[in-house]
Design a protein that fits this description.
The chain has five helices and four strands. The protein is an alpha/beta fold. The radius of gyration is 15 Å and the shape is globular.
Length: about 100
């Protein structure tokens, strides 16, 4: 755990207190070597990002998406097996993702 904490401290250098929930979640993901990515906007470019992250990038998987067009967003989420959020801020606050694209 110390190594993960030290690595996390590099990304959160101004922290003088204990790690918060989001930082602990990032450490867990780092240990598993899998980043959970959330995508905002699932139009043509967003879907390309999902496909590249899921199929080409190692160590990452799209687990959440958000779009102003709820019908399209739900369809994309079902196609790619991720959770859809109508509210991007709710997605960012959730534990379904640790990285944002």
């Amino acid at each position: 755990m110390k190594t993960a904490e030290n690595t996390c401290r590099k990304f959160f250098p101004n922290k003088e207190h204990e790690l918060d929930a989001q930082e602990r979640r990032i450490i867990r993901e780092m240990k598993l070597n899998v980043l959970k990515v959330g995508i905002v906007g699932v139009g043509a470019i967003g879907r390309t990002h999902i496909e590249r992250i899921n199929n080409i990038l190692q160590g990452a998987n799209v687990t959440a998406c958000s779009d102003v067009n709820a019908e399209l967003g739900k369809s994309v989420a079902e196609t790619y097996g991720c959770k859809f959020y109508e509210d991007g801020e709710a997605m960012i606050a959730s534990e379904d993702m640790t990285q944002l694209s």
